[in-house]
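Researcher: Please translate sequence to structure tokens.
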Amino acid sequence: MRKKLGIIGGMGPWATSYIFEKIIDTVDADTDQDHIHTFIDSNTEITDRTKAITEGATSPVAEINRSIEKLEQCGASVFILPCNTSHYFFEDFKCSKSSIIINIIEVTVKACMDMDKSGKFCILATNGTIDSELYQKCFDSHKLNYTIPDKDFQQAIMDMIYKVIKNGGDYNKLDGLTEFFELQIKNGAGYFVLGCTELSMLMQRPAFKKYRMIDSSLELAKSAIIECGYPMKS
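Model: Translation complete:
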């Protein structure tokens, strides 16, 4: 039985657009009717997740649950949140017993396991995701090797997310991250986990084509397609 998909977006709007595009690109569809019936709430009233975690700012949970409730009323029964940091609050998300919320952290780490169980993965994410150890704990539970950026690399990532991608800045500046990528490779990293949906933009940059990356947005899109009962392109 095919299910309807609800995307709780606005965290940020670009990441919402990107994952919807990935779902459209990845589902095996020949006609309009072959695509997933999708509802999107790009709820920009959801507060900043990193600030809620690291600074004690207003929690995003109430607004996220409002979006889930609205989309359930529309008929959605499978939900995704294209924001890794929001999953710090995952246990507080509420949906009916007949619905499911896919966990982006879990599906991304599973993709890492399928990629290379003995590899070393560098986790790239916001301060909120790194500080709360969302990925580290999941990697530990599966006995996978990983590393996190040093202070300078982490600050560079945050600058790219908040000062370039979120505000629609000069995407050429993203190429400045390659020097940090090279250093991580010298230190043994074989793969880079794009653990922030904004960082999926790196996949579009020619300068990063040579790196082996696991895109959390793409893995979430794949899981949503499967959970909704649709085929993926081979």
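Researcher: Any highlights?
Model: The chain has two domains: 5-103+219-227, 105-215.
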